[in-house]
Each structure stands twice: as C-alpha cells, then as structure tokens.
Amino acid sequence: MNTFKTVLVLAPHTDDGELGAGGTIAKLIENGAEVYYVAFSTAEESVPEGMPKDILKTEVKSATKQLGIKEENLIIFNYEVRKLNYVRQEILEELIKIRSNINVDLVLMPSLHDLHQDHTTVANEGLRAFKQKPILGYELIWNNLTFNTTAFTQLEERHVQKKFEALKEYNSQAGRDYTSRDFIFSLAKTRGVQIGCSFAEAFEVVRWII
Ligand SMILES: [Zn+2]
C-alpha cells in the first residue's frame, strides 16, 4: 500500500468509487497517498422527486471529504446518466488530459465485467487511457455476473467504518440495501475470510506492472 503515492479513482456515478473501494481509499490516504476522484455523472435525471437536481454533487463532496480526499482532488463531470456510451470519445479525451496532468501510479475503476452500461464505458475508456499503469477493477456485486477476486487490500475495521460513513452522506440514496452497514461490513468480512484477515476489499487485476 505504501508504494502508491498518487491514486486515481474513476467513478461513473458519484457513489461508485466509495462503494467499490471506499475502505481502500481510506487506507491509502492514511498511508499518505494523494487520491484523486473523478465522477462522470451526477445522475440529475435520476434524483428523487422533491430533491435538488444537483444533490449528488453536494453529496459526493461530503462523502469524499469523509474519506479524506481533498476538495481540489475531486473532479466532477456532468454527463447524462445511462448515456455515457454516447460520449465515449469525450470521456477518453478527458481521461487523457487527466493522465497528462497527474502522474498516477494506480488506477481504481469498475470491473471490465460490470454490466451497467455507464460502468462498462468508464472501464473501457479507463483502460484505453491508462493501459501503461497498474489498474484494479473494483467490485459492485449487484452489477457483476462474474468477478475474479484476483487482488485484495487488507483493511482494519476503521477503514470499513469510514467507507460506511462516507456512504451515509448520500441521503438521496438512503434505503438502498447496498449502502446498509450490514451489507458493507458483511462483504468486507467475506473478502477478509478469503485471505485470512478481518476485513478486505477485492479487486480484479486489469493490468499489473512490476
Ligand atoms: Zn454507478
């Protein structure tokens, strides 16, 4: 973990990075890494009735702050939800700009096996832009038909707690089963059992460079 100094998290929607890698992000920051978080859609079209259209933008700011990500390291795009594939090339070009501005040594992005069309787009373009860097695909079990647990990060309870607290900032998403404390801790426990430690997050190795 200490070898990663500059980490880029790619989140198709505002909460994906926290859901897939929140504990790992908390641990990386604790170890002194600079973490950048890019959200591609604030899903204005999916915001529940009666809530401000930009609520997810407000919430992602609070959630990433909970994890320790600096405000200036949060990049938010406003692409239309479920239609990221319509702007695939624009997304690739933005990623290439980010690659020229930030010397990233690890990329965390959705799994290449993620079924959600927006996640697939970000995973494919992420790989295109960062194919020369180590890349891990994070797990979102409700979107994965298959997921190879080929990499793990060992976590302590405090890292999983931070993930849970970050996700609590998403009031507009309250009541989703995958943001419940039970689910978050159970999955972290499950992944921990696989590798003989208390808690963990699992990733798919997309590219690894030694
Ligand atoms: Zn998503």
Primary descriptors:
alpha/beta, 6 helices, 210 residues, binds zinc ion, seven-stranded mixed sheet, globular, single chain
Account of the protein in words:
This protein has six helices and seven strands; from the N terminus they run βαβαβαβαββααβ. It has 210 residues and is an alpha/beta fold. It has a seven-stranded mixed sheet, with helices on both faces. Helix 1 packs across helix 5 and helix 3 packs across helix 4. The chain is globular and about 40 Å long. It binds zinc ion (ZN). The site of zinc ion has 6 residues, from strand 1 and helix 4. Zinc ion binds next to strand 1 and helix 4.
What secondary-structure arrangement, pairings included, does this model have?
Layout: E1 6-13, H1 16-30, E2 34-41, H2 55-67, E3 74-76, H3 88-101, E4 106-110, H4 117-130, E5 135-138, E6 151-155, H5 157-168, H6 181-195, E7 199-207
Parallel strand pairs: 1-2, 1-4, 2-3, 4-5
Antiparallel strand pairs: 5-7, 6-7
Helix pairs in contact: 1-5, 2-5, 3-4, 5-6
Zinc ion (ZN) binds next to strand 1 and helix 4.
